[in-house]
Design a protein that fits this description.
Layout (H helix, E strand, L loop, with lengths): L5 E2 L5 E2 L5 E5 L3 H13 L3 E3 L7 E5 L3 H12 L4 E5 L4 H9 L3 E4 L3 H10 L1
Parallel strand pairs: 3-4, 3-5, 5-6, 6-7
Antiparallel strand pairs: 1-2
Helix pairs in contact: 1-4
Length: about 120
Amino acid sequence: MSGRSMLRPYGVRLMPMAKRVLLGTRDLLFRSKLGAVVAAAGADVCRDEAACDLAVLELGGPEAMKRIGELVRRGVPVLAYGSHVRAEWLRAARDAGATAVPNSEVEERLRNLLTT
């Protein structure tokens, strides 16, 4: 398999075992939960956007969309998440090339991305 991600059904990206995961979230408790998922999969949380293999980003306006676009252009898979009542943000993230899910699904989706 090449270093590029592939799409599986429902837009889920298949990662060649991501090692460095960027967690872009403002909520420290949620960051801790996502960090535990990353660690359980044998990957590392990364703070360097330029060195990450996968980015998990909280949606929250135009800056998030700009960040998603930049990462996608560099070939970094992005898992974006946000409130289910902000369907327009989820849709915009998908349009920008991210896999976008509501908050309630991000842990499971991240686990799948890291272990599949």
